[in-house]
Amino acid sequence: MNTLVALIAMARPVVCLLGGIGAAAGLLVIAPDRPLPFLLQIALIQALVWGGGFTINDYFDVEKDRLNEPWRAIPSGRVSRKQALGSAILLFLAGNVWTWLLEPGLVLFALQQSLLLAAYSRILRWNGIAANVLTAYLSASAIAWGAVHTGNSAGLMPAFVFIFLLVWSREIVFDIHDRHGDASVGIRSFATLWPEDKAFRLSWLLLGLLLAVEGAIWAGFHLLHPIAFIGSISTAVLATALGLARYQTTRSKANYLRFANLGRLSFLLALPGLYLNLPLI
Questions:
Q1: Are 26 and 146 in contact (CB under 8 A)?
Q2: Please, are residues 6 and 36 in contact by the beta-carbon 8 Å criterion?
Q3: Does 74 share its domain with 175?
Q4: 121 and 190, same domain (yes or no)
Q5: Nearest-CA neighbor of 85 among 44, 125, 47, 121?
Q6: Is pLDDT of 278 > 80?
Q7: How far apart, in Å, do the first and last CA atoms of the chain sit?
Q8: Which one of 100, 128, 155, 230 is most buried, by most CB atoms within 10 A?
């Protein structure tokens, strides 16, 4: 039972739930006629694929995690590498087979996500900056199920850009936290190549770009609910900024976890403003 609990934790169920919500919301925006069971199944498929990705990367990153995150399941001995690999394969298979049974036209999209998630650790060791961009892309692509399903991607592009920039900003801070372990295994990221303060400034710059994107959308598109859009997006950026400022000032484990949790909250805060005003025309 303890092993099962640890395997579930490895899959990051809270983050997977957020990805599932994003997938269902993106589909609902583009294809509002889709029945609720279809939306729920897409959400669960997204969660399974992401869960497989988190698990397989814990399998590959065990040496780095011994330094950065020794309490994780494999370094702490609660799960063996063999068990983690089996769980990841099962999650990937479940997500892709379910996609094929539900909507064969979406299989290639599910497979693309699975392959990119499985390749993340190798890309990270090749270039940490590229891995940051990949993480931001995969996070933003969670909302793209509807675009793939209908062939209409333009209406979701502003939301994609918002999530991409938000996640990229957060990934830089995660790299700052992990810089010693990353450097020990030769990972090149902004945090290992630059002084910490410069890496923090880049994270702030990306948050500033988010506000610029928000302003451009507000000025350039006819928004159905402009107050909800401005309030929701601004609150989401503010939540991330508060966590970032606190962690930059005092780099404790508690402030790092607070930053990570505020980042997850920011996604939920942004969702109403994006959903009520998409697709943009």
A1: yes
A2: no
A3: no
A4: no
A5: 121
A6: no
A7: 51
A8: 128
Confidence of residue 280 (pLDDT cuts 50, 70, 90): low
Amino acid at 32: P
Q: Please tell me the distance from the alpha carbon of residue 201 to that of residue 234, in angstroms, as a whole number.
A: 19
Judge whether 76 and 14 are in contact, CB under 8 Å.
no
What pLDDT was estimated at residue 185?
83
Q: Would the pLDDT of 268 be above 80? A: yes
- What is the Cα–Cα distance from 81 to 73, expressed in whole angstroms? 9
Q: What is the CATH number of the domain that holds 248?
A: 1.20.120
Of 97, 119, 151, at which residue does a domain stop? 151
Q: Quick check: 276 and 225 in contact, CB under 8 A?
A: yes
Domain range for residue 70?
A: 1-151
Measured CA distances, 56 to 7, 98, 139, 142 (Å)? 11, 19, 17, 19
| Banded pLDDT at 149 (limits 50, 70, 90) | confident
**Lowest-pLDDT range of 4-18, 108-122, 144-158:** 144-158
